[in-house]
Amino acid sequence: MSREATTTDPRQEILRVSARLFQEQGYDGTSMNDVAAALKLSKGGLYHHFQSKDEILFNLMNHAMDITEERVINRVKAIPDPEERLRMLIKLHIGVVLSEGDREITVMLHENHPLPPTLRKRINARKKDYVHFLENLIAEVQRTRQLRGTVTPRAAAFALLGMINWIYQWYRPEGALQEESLAQQYTEIFFQGAFG
Amino acid sequence: MSREATTTDPRQEILRVSARLFQEQGYDGTSMNDVAAALKLSKGGLYHHFQSKDEILFNLMNHAMDITEERVINRVKAIPDPEERLRMLIKLHIGVVLSEGDREITVMLHENHPLPPTLRKRINARKKDYVHFLENLIAEVQRTRQLRGTVTPRAAAFALLGMINWIYQWYRPEGALQEESLAQQYTEIFFQGAFG
Fold first, then answer.
1. Full-model pTM
2. Under 8 Å CB-to-CB from A82, ≥6 apart: which residues?
3. Hey, are the CB atoms on B163 and A162 less than 8 Å from each other?
4. How far is it, in rounded angstroms, from Cα A190 to Cα A193?
5. Nearest Cβ partner for B189 among A165, A166, A194
6. Least CB–CB distance from A28: residue in B26, B154, B194
7. Helices (H), B26-178
8. What is the pLDDT of residues A15-68, one digit of tens each?
9. Rounded CA gap, B189 and B196, in Å?
10. 3-state helix, strand, coil in chain A (%, to 5)
């Protein structure tokens, strides 16, 4: 395979263009023909990579989970202090949500799309892994601080994921509340809220 | 109009059935014919109430905002103490999110559906009114407590809305985390987080 072919991965390109079309005209309103046309591919060329729209959607969601794993979990795992690990997780996760290049892919995780049950289960399993990672980290911070509060790590994990993943709904690049201030304030709210 | 006709409002019934179909088979995957068939209405009977699917979606979102206004804002407005007002708002808003009867309607507010820009603007204006109501209430509590913290009412309002509206994504009626405990823990997290 030539060097050029490896630098622009055709599957990634198909996923990115599909994500944009799904956002613009809806998942059901987008056909495999639309995807092929937008990529200037023949229908056969597209089917060579993905057999169906379900397969594209599944791979899109899977890719969104890869992004979260690579840019958040893998980067914080090695931080020895649990509190620092959690602070960095909040900062990096907000970074992923606000990343212009990835936003159209990661937002797909949260829309109610009709994925076949077996594929839906595989995505949900990865989402649950993330929740558990966060829940364990919160429990670790609580132990370090010797807290015996009434806030459970589970409720705190869902609260934090809600705060961060909801940013998609209201954030505007031209708005007053920008990444650095947002990350700082959300960290403060969450740390006081869960460990205060 | 007979008493029976007023107790089962046909427009409300159309909206409720449409919401269910949109959830099950997607907005784009649902036709006006599907809606009419599910209601055992003639196509003319349906068009008598709503001219298009866009009109149904707009009225559905508008109805979801009515529910929020009636069951949350209108019920807390008269509470004189701002802190009590905010505690009650959190409890009631979580109640709306978890309400089995309204869930399929209110969840429509958060999906990325292709509403025409003029209608989209009207829904967004109502959403903004809710954010502002919450933001002002948080500012009032901060003043009462004479806080000069670094958490702004705006960031705090978005954090709280995220926590609550995200519940749709993970809540299971058979799960361990139920309404009363959830409301209590979220209130604690938020109060410590924003005013701690």
1. 0.91
2. A137, A140, A141, A144
3. yes
4. 5
5. A194
6. B26
7. 32-38, 43-49, 53-68, 74-76, 82-98, 100-106, 117-144, 153-165, 167-170
8. 999 999 988 887 878 999 999 999 999 999 999 999 999 999 999 999 999 999
9. 9
10. 75, 0, 25
- Residue A2 C-alpha, separation from nearest chain B C-alpha, in angstroms: 39
B112 and A111: CB-CB below 8 Å? yes
Cβ–Cβ below 8 Å for A169 and B165? yes
Among positive and negative, which fits the CA dihedral B104, B105, B111, B114? positive
Residue A18 contacts residue A56 (beta carbons within 8 Å) = yes
A contact residues 164-193, partner B, Cβ 8 Å cutoff: 164-167, 169-170, 176-177, 181-182, 184-186, 188-193
Answer whether A111's CB lies under 8 Å from B112's CB. yes
CA-to-CA distance for A187 and A179, rounded, in angstroms? 12
Widest Cα–Cα separation across chain B: 61
> Taking a C-beta distance cutoff of 8 angstroms, is the pair B126, B65 a contact?
yes
Closest alpha carbon to B130 in B138, B119, B142? B138
Place of tokens 């702004």: B152
> How far, in Å, CA of B71 to CA of B98, rounded?
13
Tokens of A12: 């990634």
Per-residue pLDDT tens digits for A160-187: 999 999 999 999 989 989 999 999 999 9
C-alpha closest to that of B194 among B161, B151, B154: B151
Inter-helix orientation angle B82-98/B179-195, to 10°: 140
Whole-number Å distance between alpha carbons of B109 and B60:
8
Residue type for position A121: K
Q: Which of residues 23-52 of B touch A (CB under 8 A)?
A: 23-29
Name the residue in chain B with its Cα closest to that of A158: B163
Under an 8 A CB cutoff, do A166 and B170 touch? no
